[in-house]
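Hi support team,

I submitted a single chain yesterday and got back a structure, but I'm not sure I'm reading the token output correctly. Could someone confirm the output below corresponds to the sequence I sent? I've pasted both exactly as they appear in my results page.

Thanks,
R.
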Amino acid sequence: MSNFFDFNTASEQQEGDLLPSKTYARVICAIRPGGHGVGGWLSKSQSGFEYLVMELTLSSAPYAKRKIFQNAGVGGVTEGHEKAASITRSLLRGMLESAKGIDPKDESDKARRARIISTWEELNELEFAIEIGIEKGKDGYGDKNKILRVLTPDHKIYQRVMAGETVLPGGPGKTDPTAALPKNTPQPTKNQAPSAIPAWAR
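Hi R., thanks for writing in. Yes, this is the structure output for that exact sequence:
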């Protein structure tokens, strides 16, 4: 056996492949606590930007267990922070509607109650359908996957995706020959944010 401590013979690091843009898949949400806010669920930047660090794990084949990391702003001290919070409120509404099967136009008492949470912790284990996009890297960060949009019950393929089908960019029934053995998506280190905070939200 070669000398384990001689790393000249080790393979070079491989950057994890991005999931194809416009892929429809089912994901499970987990919030990474940042130690701020009620319950310590929020993270906070030096500029005062408060955000949720969302870890989304794909639960449908062929990309099951692949992860997407996304920061979702919920408040702060600038106009940009408030803009981010407004975007996040729409995102979270979609997540709740997707997970609970609520049509966006349903204004019944039951539907309105379904859109209310008491703590950020309630977002943990929420399972919903998304369209995956790719965000171009900024400030030294590489490109990364993101939620392009959340699929709600009024979307034509919502039921199929929630039933466990992953719809690839080629359309229904198309398969990706490279998807059988997907590489692991790189995960951020303990002290590193999963993605750069947008400049307008700082």
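A quick pointer for reading it: The two ends are 52 Å apart (CA to CA). Let us know if anything else looks off.

Best,
Support desk
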